[in-house]
Every structure is written in structure tokens, then in C-alpha cells.
Amino acid sequence: MGEHSIGQALAFLDWSTGKLSGAAVHESTKTLGDLRGIFSSERDWAKMDPTGVVYHVQWVTPPGADTEGGLLWGNTTIEPGTVGDEYFMTHGHFHLKPDRTEFYATTSGSGLLLLMDSARHTQIQEMSPGSLHHIGPGLAHRVINTGAEKLKILACWPSDAGHDYGTIAQQGFSVRVLRGSGSPRIV
Ligand code: PAN
Ligand code: ZN
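^ thats the input. predicted complex w/ 5-phospho-D-arabinohydroxamic acid below
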């Protein structure tokens, strides 16, 4: 019999929610106050509690995550809600290394994924439980919760992808998603 060793799992994942647990898990929460300038109506944003949670992110950093070829795994939970008529959403970003791609998958809830190229052409994909989304090279990505419940997604991406938040903070996406009568309005 060859030599072998038995080690511990990196973390544990609840597949019904995507929730991670274990010592290797990192967390971050984004509040309305953190999302200044992201929503179209500064007036409606200013009327809301800045400590209100918009989304929560968990991720695991495996050994070797700081080397080329490393991967990160995480999840994001976006609360239901709006600022004025605009649905709660993530900041959205390009990857600093444009050739670094990513997978998103929906565990629960419903929403829209915006994918925008450098020419500001935007593609919109519907997110629903089980939907798997590939974010190709050079595409900015933002998730929008258009439902009445929490929108929960999983993500896997190269650890050296890096995040360019500045371009979106300055120029935004070319479309916004607002609450309509019946279904979301894309403007
Ligand atoms: C995701 C996102 C996460 C939060 O892990 O970072 O959903 O969205 P923002 O980073 O736009 O605030 C990912 O795309 N990583 O590359
Ligand atoms: Zn990303």
C-alpha cells in the first residue's frame, strides 16, 4: 500500500444556502452607507438607514491562493429591497486581469446578472435557483435582487483576478434595473 495521509476539509458548505463554515472562512458585509454613489437616487439613498445591510459575502482562501493558478470560492447573499425604485445590488466590478473569468450559480431567490464589456454593451441573464452563469473575459459583473426574498449565489474565481471597482463607481453600468408594475423595468 502506498503512503497516504488524511487531512481536514478546507471548509463546509450548506448546499441549500451556500453558507460556508470553518476556520478558513472570511466574511464581509456591505451596508447602504458603503454603497454611496451606486444607486441612481442619492435623495432616496440619503433617507435610508446607512447601517442597513444590502449584501453579505463569505469566501475561503485555500493554501496557495497567492500563487498563479489559485482559486477562490465564495458566496453572496443580497437582501430584498430597493433604494427608491432601484433594486438592491452588488457594487459590480471588472477583474483587474481582464482574462480572469468566473462562475456564479444561484442557490435561492431570483434576480438578474448584468455582464458589461469595455464598450459598455450589456448582456442580462436571469438568475433563479440552479442557474449557472459564466462570466467571460473582460466583462464587468453585477448581481441584482429583483425578488421578495434573499438572493443567494455561489462564486468561483481565480485568486489573482483582482477587483477594479473604480470604473463602475465612476461610469456605472449602461443599464439600471427598477421596480416596475409586475416585472422589473430595465432602463
Ligand atoms: C464575487 C463578488 C461578490 C460581491 O465574489 O465579489 O459577489 O460583489 P462586489 O465585489 O461587486 O461587491 C466576485 O465577483 N468575485 O470576483
Ligand atoms: Zn468577480
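Residues 57, 74, 76, 90-93, 102, 141, 155, 157, 161, 163 surround 5-phospho-D-arabinohydroxamic acid (ligand 1) (CB under 6 Å).
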